[in-house]
Design brief:
By secondary structure, the chain is of the alpha/beta class. Helix content is 39%, strand content 14%. Strand 5, helix 6 and strand 6 form a beta-alpha-beta unit. The protein is globular. The two termini are 15 Å apart. The structure holds iron/sulfur cluster.
Length: 384
């Protein structure tokens, strides 16, 4: 599959750049030219402008994982966070190298679910609900025709490779905010008559998607690691892991009310990692790519408030001067870990590649490759 996204052009006349920033940008451009088609730089929407300007493709984690899977480039430099570069490594072959410019760029939400905690929750939930483990099915991932009810694990892309492997081995699947509805339908198709889904790590994406599919909140208990469930698990449809994004949790109902008071005709679009209360009072919600398309399709003169990471909101505001675009939270900071990808780190990685070194490589160990690849490939096979 080929996805064509507009590449950002580099404006070296940009007066907001310091001489040092301009020198780094120019050097990155030279190094890119030297590496040519051997190199692909992927940039997440939450990256700062001085990174995005060098990206060959810009997108959300779903789009970028497709780009990595379809690419023949030898070097894939992922300007995003750790789990994204891991997924790129899983989806590419052994002659391709995935790299992260700053190895400290993780994701606090992904860290909220660890393999030992998920394994222990899995055992307890199976015992309490009496559901079956799809690992025992002859063909995990296939639709069961044995009349049994199963617990199907679904992990958000924002999770470590060992959790994706767990999910793959237990007949489950990965999702992103672009395809969560399609993925949950896939999972329910395989859960059997009274089956359920264990969804981790982001409770809000799971809850908001479940509600949008008509699933009652009373059958979506929350599982707190090491403590247990806040509701009876019998009859549950989606068991939500108690994880959250510290950036999206900041958008509130009060901020929406404040914006509507200032702009009675205004529209509010938020990411589904926001709380259900914030999503409920917004006009629309969806992935970063959805938000981008939503804003682009609004008529000139529109007032819109966006509930997502500030770098993306600022870029949308710059690209649409004919619209009043603001961040729902005027005090919001960038995602602190996405912000760890500085142009100097990108330049350093490219310098080393030109010298013949492979720096900052993200290698997913062989013992978790098989299950995680299965879980990712199931996701990529699903239409949104
Ligand atoms: S915005 Fe939230 S979910 Fe995304 S990388 Fe940052 S902390 Fe993780």
């Amino acid at each position: 599959m080929t996805i064509t996204l507009p590449m950002c052009s580099i404006d070296f006349m940009d007066t907001s750049m310091s001489p040092e920033e301009r020198a780094i940008a120019e050097r990155i451009t030279e190094l890119k030219q030297e590496l040519g088609s051997r190199l692909m730089i992927l940039g997440h929407h939450y990256q700062r402008d001085s990174i995005v300007m060098h990206a060959d493709f810009i997108g959300d984690s779903f789009m970028l994982s497709q780009m990595a899977a379809d690419s023949n480039a030898e070097f894939i430099v992922f300007c995003g966070v750790h789990f994204m570069a891991e997924s790129a490594d899983i989806l590419t072959d052994e002659n391709q190298y995935g790299m992260l410019p700053n190895l400290r760029a993780g994701c606090s939400m992904a860290d909220m679910a660890t393999l030992p905690d998920v394994e222990s929750a899995w055992t307890e939930i199976l015992a309490e609900t009496g559901l079956s483990d799809p690992i025992n099915r002859v063909s995990p991932g296939e639709k069961p025709d044995d009349g049994k009810s199963y617990l199907i694990p679904v992990t958000y892309m924002n999770s470590s490779a060992d959790l994706k492997d767990f999910v793959g081995r237990h007949g489950g699947i990965v999702c992103t905010s672009s395809n969560a509805t399609g993925v949950l339908n896939w999972a329910f198709d395989r859960a059997g008559p009274n089956g359920a889904v264990l969804f981790f790590p982001d409770q809000h994406l799971g809850r908001n998607t479940g509600l949008s599919m008509g699933i009652e909140e009373s059958v979506m208990p929350t599982w707190v690691p090491k403590i247990g469930s806040d509701k009876d698990l019998k009859g549950a449809k989606i068991i939500l892991w108690h994880g959250f994004c510290s950036v999206h949790k900041r958008f509130t109902v009060e901020q929406v009310a404040d914006f509507r008071e200032r702009h009675p005709d205004g529209l509010v679009v938020v990411h589904p990692e926001c709380t259900k209360e914030t999503v409920e009072v917004s006009d629309a919600n969806g992935s970063t790519q959805f938000i981008k398309n939503y804003v682009e399709n609004l008529p000139s003169g529109s007032n819109v408030a966006i509930g997502t990471e500030i770098n993306m909101v600022a870029r949308l505001a710059d690209s649409h001067p004919d619209k009043n675009i603001e961040c729902l939270d005027d005090k919001i900071c960038p995602c602190s870990t996405m912000y760890m990808i500085h142009p100097a780190y990108l330049m350093d990685v490219l310098e080393k590649l030109v010298e013949g070194e492979i720096p900052n490589q993200i290698i997913v160990s062989e013992d978790v490759q098989e299950g995680s690849l299965l879980a990712l490939e199931r996701m990529l096979s699903i239409k949104k």
